[in-house]
């Protein structure tokens, strides 16, 4: 399973944090510090994987943002790398050419999209279309009441 | 309008975020945040009821502030209100806030659970999903208690929508992981397995994570999943790259699901059913074949997805370890990747080959890649890849290639990254020992290790070389000669001095015939290093000197002179001073015979597990290390020498060091026992450190303050303490919580630092928790383990009762196992006041006028544990003439009677 996902900028500013297990705030801060220093210190064109404690760290940089995923030891690194990529694609599809600012100003959306994609550190839905339709539907429903909502959800 | 905002933009939020971004300094940011917090607080407190939109906006702002790293102590109630809104986005923000910020405020949890319950039963799939996400995100025990039985029902109900099923499956998985005892297997389990056949690929993808986890814990109950998984996998693998529509990822059909299916199969042995097995082997072959086909896209996503499946298939092949043909193919495939231009693939190939190297079918095939791997170790730019290469060399090492691999690892050490040096050193030391055919090679290798990476050679490593030299007389002469030569280097590492001092002290006579290494030359060589060394090394050298006096009487005068000089017999370090004084005395008064007996050559070390191996295991975690074991059935294992006996303590057989060692240990025990009847005092004290304790207990809770005092004038560095609970304690005393700011890593000379432990007694126990203290003093690592005086009687509540009540209860507790009795000799005076004080210190009530014999003492109390209360009655009958006591305990729990009786019998 995925233990956590962090998004941070080249300057080490945290843009999104998602924890899939219960961790104290103190411990979170420590992990965030460790991850940003470790990942930012990596040279270009090195591999995307690191060992850290009993976890594997998978990271990838997209433009100004680093996506950093921690997975358990027996998990598959390459597919985790594509989890990152699929999430980027989902953000991209939603925001249209996503950039760091989109995530800063619409952080709640970034969380909603992630919730449609991953739950409890496991993949819920890999289909880009289905995830996007769910997100768009919820946007359309922003101020509607629940009865209206009910019908729109039936897209299958 | 600053920047972008999508969907139902909250303008106020965007303005606030952009304000924060414009702050020039941390102070400005904090000021802006405080202003906002004040604003939100007043809005929430105001008389005017806020509309849903505003509430949502403010809750969202609070969330943003929290995610910036600031504490939020209000707004939870407003967020909970949002949960019951009919408007989707308000509900959604409410749930997001709860998911991120929930704490175990029980009042709130009840309200949250209520809202979740409503949404789950709303039959509105979107609301149900939101509620399920929230449960999965929080995953607390309270939620598991409330929903663990409901969710399986939703998961397998015929009319549940696919998206809800997906959320429910993963939500259940989360609850199962956090509270497995609350998720009960039942009729739903068989239906869950059949979700592997579901038409909707998304449902299968979500469900398989749940099924895999359940199968790991209950393999028998879920074993039907094997054939279902094989047929699903076979359908995916044989499908064309476009068949699965949106589940095809860059021309790879369902990569996530394929990987999950292959992982699920790794929970089981190879299928017994021939047809299923045949089909699976076919799948694996197809996957291996596809790797050879030209890529369908140049995109890295394509090759990543394809290779993810390939690596997972290889893991399964290695897991089965029964198909030589597939294993060799897997190995060849990985061999190709070793030279791939993608760094990621080289890294993974090295990692994967490590496991392959331990299979007897593929070990030889892995070995053929040795040159490539050595090359990777030398030339890879990326340290993580080099580390994998070093791991693989270690894994593929056997008798045939040990010399080459050890030599390569040694030469790599000279330039290796600091972060991995210690581990490399341990690995080289293990391989050198394990595959040593001639021990001179072994000695050379270890001395080279010390030369190249002396700082990273831990005690275990140099202890080990000494153990081996002592146990093997064919290598002793060579070892003496080699260390003698090594010591001639103008700058040599302190570890070399230690090994040199020890070995020359034992076996210097073997090379003394050569005038170039005559006794005096040896001594002068050693002594030339003396002043540059730390205290422990000097102590070791002093022991070597006294051994010289025995080996070579002609050095006696010179050495006595050295011992006699002020810097030795008046050394400010007690240990050095004591050794100098004792050795000097010993050398002047003892006859040659006595000297020869006392300073006899060290006896061989007992054979045990290599201490280095133990160290590596500790470093990497159990299971992480397997010494390559393949071709090597060692004869006798004569090298497996003593684990924890460092040669230094052994070297001091001349002085009273051994008995002194015992003394320290027993005085600790004595102090520990002393704490049974008192809560404050000194737990431990030696020349360096004093540890004081103050503790208080109430009901089943306790708090202990530990005071660590540095008695020296020198700073202690890397000071760390850990508290661990041996065995049964873990479940019995909970949270011996080293509270925040455990201890500062530096303790200045003369300073005292403090640490707080919180203790909760869950049920009765007999083992004491252990306190381990590590620090560096003048370069030497000090390591100390003490029992913490937490004993069951600390949780006593005194109970007053009349004579009548006492004897009535006494009779009620009349079953033989409820009583524990001991008759023992008095260890201390039998003074009445002292006895009374001790009994009061025990925590019980001392009852007057109960026992008809006024000489006797009776006490009563209740031990409070979290789970239960244990009533205890005590009777102590002194016999002044015989200087004996009879102690009787009766408790409502047998184990408590026993334990109290043991504890108390040591007190009087």
From TrEMBL, chain A:
Domain AP complex mu/sigma subunit: 1-140
Subcellular location: Cytoplasmic vesicle membrane; Golgi apparatus; Membrane, Clathrin-coated pit
Endpoints of the signal sequence: none
GO biological process: intracellular protein transport
UniProt entry keywords in alphabetical sequence: Coated pit, Cytoplasmic vesicle, Golgi apparatus, Membrane, Protein transport, Transport
A molecular-function term among this protein's GO annotations: clathrin adaptor activity
Coiled-coil zones: none
InterPro entries registered for this protein in UniProt: AP1_sigma, AP_complex_ssu, AP_mu_sigma_su, Clathrin_sm-chain_CS, Longin-like_dom_sf
Topology in membrane: Peripheral membrane protein
Recorded GO CC terms: AP-1 adaptor complex; clathrin-coated pit
Subunit relationships: Adaptor protein complex 1 (AP-1) is a heterotetramer composed of two large adaptins (gamma-type subunit AP1G1 and beta-type subunit AP1B1), a medium adaptin (mu-type subunit AP1M1 or AP1M2) and a small adaptin (sigma-type subunit AP1S1 or AP1S2 or AP1S3).
Family: Belongs to the adaptor complexes small subunit family.
Designated name of the protein: AP complex subunit sigma
Organism of this sequence: Cyclopterus lumpus
TrEMBL record, chain B:
Residues of the signal peptide: none
Annotated region (Disordered), positions in chain: 622-650
InterPro entries attached to this UniProt entry: Adaptor_Complx_Large_Subunit, AP2_complex_asu, ARM-like, ARM-type_fold, Clathrin/coatomer_adapt-like_N, Clathrin_a-adaptin_app_sub_C, Clathrin_a/b/g-adaptin_app_Ig, Clathrin_app_Ig-like_sf
Molecular function per GO: clathrin adaptor activity
Annotated localization: Cell membrane; Membrane, Coated pit
Residues annotated as domain Clathrin adaptor alpha/beta/gamma-adaptin appendage Ig-like subdomain: 673-789
GO cellular component, as recorded: AP-2 adaptor complex
Alphabetic keyword roster: Cell membrane, Coated pit, Endocytosis, Membrane, Protein transport, Transport
Binding residues for a 1,2-diacyl-sn-glycero-3-phospho-(1D-myo-inositol-3,4,5-trisphosphate): 11-12, 43, 53, 57-61
Gene Ontology biological process terms from the UniProt entry: clathrin-dependent endocytosis; intracellular protein transport
Bilayer disposition of the protein: Peripheral membrane protein
Function: Component of the adaptor protein complex 2 (AP-2). Adaptor protein complexes function in protein transport via transport vesicles in different membrane traffic pathways. Adaptor protein complexes are vesicle coat components and appear to be involved in cargo selection and vesicle formation. AP-2 is involved in clathrin-dependent endocytosis in which cargo proteins are incorporated into vesicles surrounded by clathrin (clathrin-coated vesicles, CCVs) which are destined for fusion with the early endosome.
Membership in a protein family: Belongs to the adaptor complexes large subunit family.
Subunit field text: Adaptor protein complex 2 (AP-2) is a heterotetramer composed of two large adaptins (alpha-type subunit AP2A1 or AP2A2 and beta-type subunit AP2B1), a medium adaptin (mu-type subunit AP2M1) and a small adaptin (sigma-type subunit AP2S1).
Name this protein carries in UniProt: AP-2 complex subunit alpha
């Amino acid at each position: 399973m995925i233990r956590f996902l962090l998004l941070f900028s080249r300057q080490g500013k945290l843009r999104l944090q998602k924890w899939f297990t219960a961790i104290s705030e103190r411990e979170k801060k420590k992990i965030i510090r460790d991850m940003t220093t470790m990942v930012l210190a990596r040279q270009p064109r090195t591999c995307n994987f690191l060992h850290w404690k009993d976890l594997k760290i998978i990271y990838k940089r997209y433009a100004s943002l680093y996506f950093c995923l921690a997975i358990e030891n027996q998990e598959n690194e390459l597919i985790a790398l594509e989890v990152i990529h699929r999430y980027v694609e989902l953000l991209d599809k939603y925001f249209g050419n996503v950039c760091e600012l989109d995530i800063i100003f619409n952080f709640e959306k970034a969380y909603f999209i992630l919730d449609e994609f991953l739950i409890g550190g496991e993949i819920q839905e890999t289909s880009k279309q289905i995830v996007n339709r769910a997100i768009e539907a919820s946007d359309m429903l922003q101020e509607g009441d629940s009865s209206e909502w009910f019908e729109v959800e039936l897209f299958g | 309008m600053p920047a972008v905002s999508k969907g139902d933009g909250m303008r106020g939020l965007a303005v606030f975020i952009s304000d924060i971004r414009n702050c020039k300094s941390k102070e400005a940011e904090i000021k802006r945040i405080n202003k906002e917090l004040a604003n939100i607080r007043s809005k929430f407190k105001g008389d005017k009821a806020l509309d849903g939109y505003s509430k949502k906006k403010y809750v969202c702002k609070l969330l943003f502030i929290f995610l910036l790293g600031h504490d939020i102590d209000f707004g939870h109630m407003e967020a909970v209100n949002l949960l019951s809104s009919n408007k989707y986005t308000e509900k959604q923000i409410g749930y997001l806030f709860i998911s991120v910020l929930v704490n175990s405020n029980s009042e709130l949890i009840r309200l949250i659970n209520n809202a979740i319950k409503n949404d789950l039963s709303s039959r509105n799939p979107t609301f149900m999903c939101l509620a399920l996400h929230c449960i999965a995100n929080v995953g607390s025990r309270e939620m598991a208690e409330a929903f663990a039985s409901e969710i399986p029902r939703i998961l397998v109900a015929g009319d549940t929508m696919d998206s809800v099923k997906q959320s429910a499956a993963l939500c259940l998985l989360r609850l199962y992981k956090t509270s497995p005892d609350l998720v009960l297997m039942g009729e739903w389990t068989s239906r869950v397995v059949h979700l592997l056949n579901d038409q909707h690929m998304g449902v299968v993808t979500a469900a398989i994570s749940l099924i895999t986890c359940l199968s790991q814990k209950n393999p028998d109950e879920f074993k039907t999943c094997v054939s279902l998984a094989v047929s699903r996998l076979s359908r995916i693998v044989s499908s064309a790259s476009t068949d699965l529509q949106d589940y095809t990822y860059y021309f790879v059909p369902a990569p996530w699901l394929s990987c999950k299916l292959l992982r699920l199969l790794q929970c089981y042995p190879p299928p017994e059913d021939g047809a299923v097995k045949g089909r699976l082997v076919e799948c694996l072959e197809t996957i291996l074949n596809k790797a050879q086909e030209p890529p369908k896209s140049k995109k890295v996503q394509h090759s990543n997805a394809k290779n993810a499946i390939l690596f997972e298939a290889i893991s399964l092949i290695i897991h089965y370890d029964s198909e030589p043909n597939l294993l060799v193919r897997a190995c060849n495939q990985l061999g190709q990747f070793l030279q791939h231009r993608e760094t990621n693939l080289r890294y993974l190939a090295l990692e994967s080959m490590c496991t392959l190297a331990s299979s007897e079918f593929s070990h030889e095939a892995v070995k053929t890649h040795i040159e490539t791997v050595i090359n990777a170790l030398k030339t890879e730019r990326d340290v993580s890849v080099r580390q994998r290469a070093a791991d693989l060399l270690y894994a593929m090492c056997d008798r045939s290639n040990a010399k080459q691999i050890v030599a390569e690892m040694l030469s790599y050490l000279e330039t290796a990254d600091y972060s991995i040096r210690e581990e490399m050193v341990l690995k080289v030391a293990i391989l050198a020992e394990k595959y040593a055919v001639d021990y001179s090679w072994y000695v050379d290798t270890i001395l080279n290790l010390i030369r190249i990476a002396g700082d990273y050679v831990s005690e275990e490593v140099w202890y080990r070389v000494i153990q081996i030299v002592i146990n093997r007389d064919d290598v002793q002469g060579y070892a003496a000669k080699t260390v003698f030569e090594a010591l001639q280097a103008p700058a040599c590492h302190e570890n070399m001095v230690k090994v040199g001092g020890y070995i020359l002290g034992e076996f210097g006579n073997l090379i003394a015939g050569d005038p170039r290494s005559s006794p005096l030359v040896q001594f002068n060589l050693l002594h030339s290093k003396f002043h540059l060394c730390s205290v422990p090394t000097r102590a070791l050298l002093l022991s070597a000197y006294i051994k010289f006096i025995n080996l070579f009487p002609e050095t006696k005068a010179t050495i006595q002179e050295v011992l006699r000089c002020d810097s030795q017999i008046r050394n400010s370090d007690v240990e050095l001073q004591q050794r100098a004084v004792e050795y000097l005395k010993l050398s002047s008064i003892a006859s040659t015979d006595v000297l020869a007996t006392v300073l006899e050559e060290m006896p061989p070390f007992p054979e045990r597990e290599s201490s280095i191996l133990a160290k590596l295991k500790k470093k990497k975690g159990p299971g992480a290390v397997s010494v390559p074991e393949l071709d090597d059935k060692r004869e006798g294992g004569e090298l497996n020498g003593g684990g924890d006996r460092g040669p230094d303590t052994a070297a001091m057989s001349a002085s009273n060091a051994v008995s002194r060692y015992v003394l320290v240990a027993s005085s600790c025990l004595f102090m520990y026992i002393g704490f049974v009847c008192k809560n404050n005092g000194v737990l431990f004290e030696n020349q360096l450190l004093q540890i004081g304790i103050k503790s208080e207990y109430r009901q089943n809770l306790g708090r202990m303050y530990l005071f660590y005092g540095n008695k020296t004038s020198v700073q202690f560095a890397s000071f760390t303490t850990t508290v661990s609970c041996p065995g049964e304690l873990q479940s019995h005393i909970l949270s011996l919580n080293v509270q925040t700011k455990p201890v500062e890593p530096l303790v200045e000379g003369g300073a005292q630092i403090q640490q707080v432990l919180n203790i909760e007694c869950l049920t009765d126990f007999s083992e004491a928790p252990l306190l381990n203290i590590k620090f560096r003093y003048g370069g030497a690592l000090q390591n100390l383990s003490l029992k913490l005086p937490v004993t069951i009687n600390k949780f006593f509540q005194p109970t007053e009762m009349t004579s009548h009540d006492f004897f009535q209860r006494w009779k009620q507790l009349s079953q033989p196992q409820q009583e524990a009795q001991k008759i023992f000799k008095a260890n201390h005076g039998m003074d009445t006041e002292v006895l009374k004080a001790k009994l009061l210190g025990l925590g019980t009530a001392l009852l007057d006028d109960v026992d008809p014999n006024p000489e006797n003492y009776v006490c009563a109390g209740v031990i409070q544990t979290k789970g239960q209360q244990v009533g205890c009655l005590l009777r102590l009958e002194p016999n002044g003439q015989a200087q004996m006591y009879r102690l009787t305990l009766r408790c409502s729990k047998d184990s408590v009677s026993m334990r109290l009786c043991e504890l108390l019998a040591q007190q009087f």
